[in-house]
Design goal:
With 763 residues, the chain is α/β, with parallel strands linked by helices. It is 37% helix and 15% strand. It has four domains: 223 residues, Rossmann fold (3-Layer(aba) Sandwich); 209 residues, P-loop containing nucleotide triphosphate hydrolases (Rossmann fold, 3-Layer(aba) Sandwich); 130 residues; 111 residues, no CATH class. Helix 16 crosses helix 17, helix 17 runs antiparallel to helix 18 and helix 18 packs across helix 22. Pfam families: DEAD (PF00270), HA2_C (PF21010), Helicase_C (PF00271), OB_NTP_bind (PF07717), WHD_HA2 (PF04408).
């Protein structure tokens, strides 16, 4: 099957950006009073004293000086580009400015964010500034949480939620303006939102406005994508930031971060510290080490609820120290705080724990926040004077040749490095310690590589087809995905039955798209009734969506493994996840204690319950029989039915155990060292040591011949491995898809022979 790209600049010739037809009810910009009126125009109630205090702060923001210019530009142009430097106030103020223009923009002003924490925290702030209740005139909409009503004028939401709304209303008629914030991050959802809104401009020329905002926007590219759109530039409220580089590369940037924070605290005057690391594991490792370094005053505040802090890892060697590049230390000991609060910040953290980073702490206390790139632009933490930047971020990558998804630390862009530096200069002169050399920085890319060019796009293609895009190859992407990536996506959808031979969306594909999960999980859920276990499959889908629920503190590995063993099942990880979910579900009233005692992540399991309830509700709406084989009294589940359901969704992700080479020693061989080969691509992979299948193999001294897995992972030089797998029978493969009977699609001769033997035995 060949997928051809048929557009050059599809739709661009139909767009006329300047000048725009005027919206009805034209009147002077800023017609809603914000300072001197006795009544709040949004509530018709008197302004509070708190409003007047916040108004003074707002008026000092750089973006406030451009208020009338922004309002007039948006009024007279369908599209406006706004580049606002760090600290300019664009995220909180621009939607507020536009909401003031009620006669011109009578509908909702939406502001999209790439992350839920940003949508919630910014909405909370803007509600306070507008002197309204959160959920009334200002609201937010994120997965599993929505606070809005018919009176809502400003709505902060994730990009993904706007896309879900487009399912029901492709013209987004409730919105007068959509502000796409943080456009520089170039997530898949952001790029798809931009493409949909670009098309929408042709259909709602007089009633809709688009504003694209960023701190580090690739202006030339976006202006080419949205020709004729005027550019408004807002300077930031920045103080000087001294940048310190390492004299040579650090061997371990987590250890170097801990060492650097200790030195900053001991040497520098008051001011909070913001550290950037790549993910949860690194952050918790650093937080734990800092707890030990600073003593009980730090550990008491933010110790993880589900695990006992381990002893600190060895600190970084002398090389990455501030003496190499920094100015002399402060001699004013009285100005240096004595207490320290250490706080993690990452996406899977509970909302309550995330909000701790915004809290004010007593005088004499220094706040240290260890964060992913979520704190780069999405949220602003007041009081930060010092930044420690590891120079990396986690990126999802897709190898189209090997068809492998993996998540690896990748160097950040120069634009991201500048954003991180800018966090140190919002309130006074600051310092940014970069844990890389100046030569390393020079080699960084200028901008972040768009996610759509480096990830599997099967879910994106399914989404576009569902939204009525007849040929996703013609969709106006900012950066079109590769032809190979598009072909891979259509092949998988064709195998799934989501598209027909003409690549048109089928009814089954439309039902798949109605489920807000990965395409493999959606197919698993819709095929599970064939095995009378849709409710059981929903549990597995919820656990895979929620993320890793197991906590493995380094100093308590033996205890954690013993606790996790109670959930293991020889049939595989998917069954183990099912058992874990129900064990937690039974103890939900005391969930935090249950997780603490069993080394589990409470927040992850709470999310899993939310996803499960959502999926059950959606399956009911789709008239899918939601049956279960689970018997709580005996803790019984039909593992055959459950694994067959998993296979229905992940049949393209099956691996075969390669035989031991002739003459190779068998006595004493570790079974987990055996190599599997994937059926689809003949890739050599091994089981991760944390897989339940690997643990069972250690006891049983044997591995299953065939396994189904949810994804492959690549870890540095350790090769490609499988973390979540379950045993399946070869006969099931022949039943689930013609993929296993059409042996021309199987590249490995040995695997093809095994499948052929299985076919012959069934005759």
């Amino acid at each position: 099957m060949a997928v051809k790209r048929t557009r050059d600049e599809a739709g661009d010739e139909d767009l006329d950006y300047v000048p725009a037809p005027q919206l009805p009810g034209r009147r002077q910009c800023g017609s809603v009073c914000t300072s001197s009126c006795a009544l709040n125009p949004f509530t018709r109630q008197p302004f509070s004293s708190r409003y007047q205090q916040l108004l003074q702060s707002r008026q000092r923001l750089p973006v406030y000086e451009k208020r009338h210019l922004i309002q007039e530009t948006v009024r007279t142009h369908p599209v406006t580009l706004l580049v606002g430097e760090t600290g300019s106030g664009k995220t909180t103020q621009v939607p507020h400015f536009l909401a003031e223009m009620q006669d011109m923009f009578p509908g909702v002003v939406a502001c999209t964010q790439p992350r839920r924490i940003a949508a919630i925290s910014v909405a909370t702030r803007v509600a306070e500034e507008m002197d309204v209740h959160l959920g009334a005139q200002v609201g937010y909409h994120v997965r599993f949480d929505s606070r809005q009503c018919d009176a809502t004028r400003v709505l902060y939401m994730t990009d993904g939620m706007l896309l879900r709304e487009a399912f029901a209303d492709p013209d987004l008629n409730k919105y007068s303006v959509v502000v796409v914030d943080e456009a520089h991050e170039r997530t898949i959802d952001t790029d798809v939102v931009l493409g949909l809104l670009k098309q929408l401009l042709n259909r709602r020329r007089t009633t809709f406005r688009l504003v694209v905002m960023s701190a580090t926007l690739d202006v030339a590219k976006i202006q080419s994508y949205l020709p004729g759109a005027p550019l408004v530039h807002v300077s930031g409220r920045m103080y000087d930031v001294e940048v310190l580089y390492m004299p040579k590369p650090v061997p371990d940037y987590v250890e170097a971060t801990v060492s650097c924070v200790r030195q900053l605290h001991e040497r520098e005057p008051a001011g909070d510290i913001l550290c950037f690391l790549t993910g949860e594991a690194e952050i918790e490792r650093a937080v734990t080490a800092l707890h030990h370094a600073f003593g009980s005053s730090a550990a008491a505040v933010a110790a993880p609820a589900a695990e006992t802090p381990p002893p600190p890892p060895p600190l970084a060697p002398p090389a990455p120290t501030l003496e190499a590049t920094a100015a002399p230390a402060s001699t004013d000991a009285a100005a240096r705080p004595t207490d320290v609060v250490v706080l993690p910040l990452y996406g899977s953290l509970s909302l309550r724990d995330q909000q701790k980073v915004f809290a004010a702490y007593p005088a004499g206390t220094r706040k240290v926040v260890v964060s992913t790139n979520i704190a780069e632009t999405s949220v602003t933490i007041d009081g930060v004077v010092y930044v420690v930047d590891c120079g990396y971020q986690k990126q999802s990558l897709y190898n189209s040749e090997a068809r492998v998804d993996y998540l690896l630390p990748a160097v950040i862009s120069k634009a991201s490095a500048e954003q991180r530096k800018g966090r140190a200069g919002r309130t006074r002169p600051g310092k940014c310690v970069r844990l890389f050399t100046m030569a390393d920085y020079a080699s960084f890319p200028d901008q972040t590589h768009p996610e759509i060019l480096r990830t599997n796009i099967v879910n994106t293609v399914l989404l576009l087809l569902t939204l009525g895009v007849e040929n996703p190859c013609d969709f106006p992407f900012v950066d079109p995905p590769s032809d190979q990536g598009m072909s891979d996506a259509f092949y998988q959808l064709l195998y799934f039955g989501a598209v027909d031979d003409s690549l048109a969306l089928t009814d089954f594909g439309r039902r798949m798209a109605a489920l807000p999960v990965d395409a493999c999980l959606a197919r698993m859920l819709l095929m599970a009734p064939k095995h009378q276990c849709a409710a059981d499959a929903a549990v597995v889908a919820a656990m895979l969506e929620a993320g890793n629920a197991f906590s493995r503190p380094p100093s308590r590995l033996a205890e954690a493994r013993a606790a996790h063993a109670r959930f293991e099942d020889a049939d595989g990880d998917h069954v183990a996840l099912f058992r874990l979910f129900h064990a937690y579900y039974r103890h939900q009233q005391n969930g935090a204690r249950f997780c603490y005692e069993n080394y589990l992540r409470h927040q992850t399991l709470q999310v899993a319950v939310q996803v499960y309830n959502q999926l059950r509700g959606l399956l009911g709406q789709l008239k899918v029989p939601v049956q279960s084989t689970y018997v709580a009294e005996r803790d019984y589940v039909d593992t055959v039915a459950l694994r067959k359901a998993v296979l229905e969704g992940f049949f393209t992700q099956v691996a075969y155990l390669t035989p031991v080479a002739a003459g190779a020693p068998r006595a004493g061989m570790d079974p987990t060292s055996r190599v599997y080969r994937t059926v689809r691509d003949a890739l050599s992979v091994t089981l991760h040591r944390q897989s339940v299948v690997a643990a069972a193999a250690q006891r049983l001294r044997a591995l299953p011949t065939w396994i189904v897995f949810d994804r492959l992972e690549v870890q540095g030089d350790a090769g490609t491995f499988i973390r979540t797998a379950s045993a399946v029978e070869v006969g099931w493969l022949l039943e689930v898809s013609e993929f296993f009977t059409d042996l021309g699609e199987v590249p490995d001769g040995e695997i093809a022979q095994a499948l052929r033997r299985a076919q012959d035995s069934k005759k």
